[in-house]
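Model it.
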Amino acid sequence: MTITLTIDSLTHLRSVWLPFIQAGGISVPRLNDQQLGDLTAVKLDLFGQPCSFTGKIVWFDPSTVPATVGVQLPATAQTFRHHIETLLTQEK
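Modeled.
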């Protein structure tokens, strides 16, 4: 199953970006049966630019509603990581 997330503001991007995860990660809503270590497909719409990747679930936050998981970007998505980090250096 694919997780879909639309990010249309820098505020939203800052709230879902997980820089503490090696290679970077995105916090997305958790699907019921996901476990740490599972691979999951993520389809992002980042300011109208589509990006899809498959990453590993490396973090859980059950305190949010809905619960979220941290999906680690794969090595093949490092150009996308750089793009996110560039966006986050723009005006706050």
